[in-house]
Amino acid sequence: MSWTVFIDYLDTILFVIIALQVFYIFIFASANLIRRTDDYPTAKKLKSFLILYPAYKEDEVIMDAVHSMLSQNYSSAHYEIVVISDQMQPYTLKQLRELPITVLEVTFENSSKAKAMQFAIRSLPRKDYDYVVVMDADNQVEDNFLTQFNNCFAAGSQAIQAHRKAANIDSDVALLDAVSEEINNSIFRRGHERLGFSSALIGSGMAFEYRWFSENIDKLTTAGEDKELEALLLKDHIYIDFMDNVPVYDKKTRKEDQFGKQRRRWMAAQVGSLIHTLPQLPAALINGNFDYADKIIQWIMMPRVLLIGFTGLITLLVTAFQWTICLKWWAILILLIVSLSFAVPDELVTKRFPKALMKAPFLAFKMFLNLFHLRGVNKKFIHAAENEK
């Protein structure tokens, strides 16, 4: 085989791999632009909620989060807040115990959100809640949060993901983190729901039927608990609703090293989920479980930062060394950029935005290096307080 033929084969294979991912993003990013009202009728009955806050060394943020949930316009008799405290300070625990909530103390050798939730479900004496809500310790919500969830469940939902939004965009990294999350909201939540597919979960601001959750929580084994929950739900043919109009304000990391650690853990969780579920893809397609098949396909895809980095790099290399075949690469790169622009909300395109984008190639390179250091990463808790250190 001549060198030219080899290059042509390699070019074709790489182009097909990249193009399939770009077209996938384009389809759902375009669907994200479809506007509709997602208000649900007012529920006739107040259901009971268990609200879980797994909190690993979260002394700096947990009080604001709990006060936010205590300010609901929902009857206090119909929801219970439980903080699962792992290695928090005595003063924080004293403050928490002065509030009308339940505090559980745990100490794990390798802490994770999954272990904290499993402990709570096993330890709480009450077992007759209707629904369970999972929050992060730095999340804050508006006063109609539970009312909106109750309305959605009353309309027939079995699993819900709220719209997690940035609570801060006060650094270049925080802004990029916020943009990344909104791109995922647009493509994997809003865009998917607009085309009839389930929303992706995101780890907090999510709610489930209590009975299903309590029966399945012990099946979680990693720090990628949201992906494990997605797989369990979709295998059970349970649709995940996206409540676009219900914000959960999430604190974004300000520092590059924490951004990298977060993404490293997320990539490890994605790779672990893919290894576990990929053999089930043919059966999901044959059985018509297209939500589950779509989820597995999502986990095959590269993270968006790496995708645009690889596409841009290949386009430049092809242009420099084999310009006669570069047009299709420029076309797919432009389509990717346009697709991602569909997914970024206008309010995040601030004066800081162009400067923040300058850091994206460096962060993409660090994410690429993280691909070689994923072993064991998805067994550990990532907590908001680290972002301030």
Estimate the global geometry from the Cα principal axes.
Answer: globular
Number of helices: 15
| CATH homolog superfamily | Spore Coat Polysaccharide Biosynthesis Protein SpsA, Chain A
The value of Rg in angstroms is: 22 Å
Low-pLDDT regions: 384-389
The strand line-up of the biggest sheet is 3-2-1-4-7-6-8-5
The number of distinct structural domains comes to 1
**How much helical structure, as a percent, in the residues?**
40-55%
Mind telling me the CATH class?
Alpha Beta
Q: What would you call the structural class?
A: alpha/beta
Order of helices and strands: HEHEHEHEEHEHEHHEHHHHHHH
Give a quick account of the main beta sheet: strands, pairing sense, barrel closure.
Answer: 8 strands, mixed
- The percentage of residues in β strands lies in 5-15%
The CATH topology corresponds to Spore Coat Polysaccharide Biosynthesis Protein SpsA, Chain A
Kindly summarize this structure in a few lines.
This protein is of the alpha/beta class. Helices cover 51% and strands 13% of the residues. It has one domain (1-389): Spore Coat Polysaccharide Biosynthesis Protein SpsA, Chain A, CATH 3.90.550.10.
Structure write-up:
The protein is α/β, with parallel strands linked by helices and 389 residues long. The chain has one domain (1-389): Spore Coat Polysaccharide Biosynthesis Protein SpsA, Chain A (Alpha-Beta Complex). The chain is 51% helix and 13% strand. It has 15 helices and eight strands. It has helices at residues 3-31, 62-70, 90-97, 113-123, 145-154, 172-194, 210-216, 225-235, 256-277, 281-286, 290-300, 304-321, 327-343, 353-357, 360-370, and strands at 49-56, 79-86, 102-106, 131-134, 140-141, 159-166, 206-209, 240-250. An eight-stranded mixed β-sheet has the order 3-2-1-4-7-6-8-5, sandwiched between helices. β2, α3 (90-97) and β3 (102-106) form a beta-alpha-beta unit. α1 crosses α6 (172-194), α9 crosses α15 and α12 (304-321) runs antiparallel to α13 (327-343). The longest helix is centred in the N-terminal third of the chain and has 29 residues, at 3-31. The chain is globular, with a radius of gyration of 22 Å. Mean pLDDT is 89; it is low at 384-389.
